[in-house]
């Protein structure tokens, strides 16, 4: 009988267990008087997102992360200390007297927001229902720091990617190192502001997929991404910023983008009934999505049925016939010897439905129409191709290229017309064939 616990004692133990639960209770703010310890949970007002310490699969290291609070499998969307893990449970996140959010372990500072705030004890950290962790100044309610400005591998609705020209801050996604290691990995998804701004998926410094320039309907490289879909894409290119964000058309749906540690860029939606995320779209699925697959001055087209997706643009020939016959197009194409495309009856031929060439080397002129664009391009012997900058109004603005053309690809749907400079002979042949 001695080995059995006394009922009252048992009851007291249950009671104790019950009383202990509120210790790990959830709040939605961190204040100077209310530090946040390993085991605590910060939950947004409508319980959509939670912030807490976690360990990745097969790891004992501790990270502070934000995850969806409404799905079954813990899915982290943001990490505070991805490159500075803590190796035990003694990490504390607090707001210090200078108003900064600070992660420390004993006396060791692990991470800090490091913003300058004028008054002491004057800020509070809060997790919003968008998944954004914000540091707010009490008196004027100004956000002095936000996690959305420092993305990890996930893009959430209302989060902006791109450059804030006023502060120089460039926000982009970076993959985890591996599913077990959330440290900064080698893949990134980033806005390049040269020429006409484009989003690139990169591995290290190597571009592997180009989302194409914004043509006012969407990003050319993603024709499926119509603005009438479940989300709205917005794009700004002003003196203050070059950035993009997406918002949801129906706020009771949910969607996000994740850059996997394997470089896979995927869009997810929330299946509420089963409380899980479902991948609905992923980038770079066809060979022509690979940046520079067919080298310079060529078009990549998997829909020709020819078995080889690379073709040189009119007036160009493979740089290496041998590689080309071995179906390696990466060497690209060069102008056929003896062709004259300068003030000798040259003109342009149209390639329909393509992702225009890499626009980081393009010249942009918003005030020209397509006819004006053609004229400008024809007048400069170095101008090799042109297209509309804005296709939403049936074609306005001008993008033109003054050198080799890179990464043109025929798209299954959407795409736009590209006009490529050819000599008088090809021009004549084309018009003969077309009549
Ligand atoms: C700020 O908060 C700390 C911790 O609660 C407290 O010790 C200190 O007196 C406060 N300082 C001011 C100026 O209110
Ligand atoms: C992670 O843990 C699982 C199950 O414990 C094991 O099967 C797997 O091999 C581990 N992976 C690594 C990379 O250690
Ligand atoms: C904090 O910011 C200051 C200037 O704003 C900078 O000099 C310092 O290096 C930063 N410290 C850390 C740890 O980022
Ligand atoms: C928004 O989505 C919810 C849930 O899927 C649906 O019940 C509702 O009808 C939708 N509202 C609109 C305006 O489409
Ligand atoms: C655009 O083209 C017009 C007409 O040629 C020219 O006057 C203007 O300077 C150009 N703008 C830019 C930004 O190049």
Automatic annotation (TrEMBL):
GO terms for molecular function: carbohydrate binding; kinase activity. InterPro entries: Bulb-type_lectin_dom, Bulb-type_lectin_dom_sf, Pan_app, S_locus_glycoprot_dom, SLSG/EP1. CDD domains: B_lectin, PAN_AP_plant. Residues 1-26 form the signal peptide. The keyword Kinase applies. It comes from the Eukaryota. One of its GO terms (biological process) is recognition of pollen. PROSITE patterns: BULB_LECTIN (PS50927), PAN (PS50948). SMART domains: B_lectin, PAN_AP. Residues 342-423 form the Apple domain. Residues 27-148 form the Bulb-type lectin domain. It holds the Pfam family PAN_2. Keywords: Disulfide bond, Glycoprotein, Kinase, Lectin, Receptor, Signal, Transferase. Involved in sporophytic self-incompatibility system (the inability of flowering plants to achieve self-fertilization). This is G-type lectin S-receptor-like serine/threonine-protein kinase.
